[in-house]
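Question:
Write out your own:
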Amino acid sequence: MLHLRILAPTDMTDDVIGVLEADPGVSGLAVMRGSSLRPPGDIVFAELAREVANDVIQQLRALGVHQAGSIELQPIDTWLSRRGFEAEIHSPGSSTDAVVWANVAQRSYEETELNWTYLSFMTLATVIASIAIIIDSQILVIGAMVLGPEFGAVAALGVALVRRRFALLGLAVRTLVIGFGAAIACTFLLALVGRALGWITIEEVSGPRPGTAFIYSPDKWSFIVAVVAGAAGVLTLTSSKASGLAGVFISVTTVPAAGNIALGLAFGAGDEVSASTLQLVVNLLGMAVAGWATLYFQHAVWSRVSVRRAKAMGRPRRML
């Protein structure tokens, strides 16, 4: 169940109420006339089943509410309502499976914002990964994977392609390129310092490392794992359950590969750089392709659900 709050200009309020009253997925509706100061108008509250959120938001956008006022959606963790229960029962699909595209798009834009926090986490994760490689520690590799913030930007690539938001596509690519570039550059400089101090040797960088050899040994399984992890990550982001995202982070070796690239550059180990670069590309490509395919499938399924609902309610057909 979702809570919907709308700030609407006075001349739009009746149209907004008409949209909400006509949808059987809306279980609660309240209006506070004259309560909104900016924009001058009214506040409309509603509770609706998650499955119908896309259709309702689409109709509100068609009215131009998001241009003149605002539309806000929030999940309701606990609710007791007979009407709400009936609304969810009669709404097609499962609330857990339902994809609220407005929420997905907003999260994608937030995850692709290139800021100091993103760059800091990416750099710190890459530094930890490089240390893990030097001492051949699988525990530190896992820690670096969890700390890395890159998956949000990778998932945004799929969202951008499916929803045809090409500005988002450019932002996601820029964030990934600059993020990994900056992290590798900082780790490279620190590796040079460690080399000068004698803390890191070429044997530790290019010698046998059985515990972390998978970082610089790309194969078919690297791509398969990336595909599975990418699909799982997108499902976690689009559903109402987010418990599986940590498992995605520790399934792919993007950040460890970046750490090994930095070490290889610092010691002139070309084989390490090339193998780790291939590992990084394979992982990013696998996750991006899987994310796009998963989102495309979800988009196709929920578009058909919306078309069936529109026909049942006597509305003209619209695409999501």
Observations:
- The beta strands are 2-9, 26-37, 40-48, 70-75.
- The chain has a mean pLDDT of 86.
- The CA atoms of residues 17 and 84 lie 18 Å apart.
- The two ends are 20 Å apart (CA to CA).
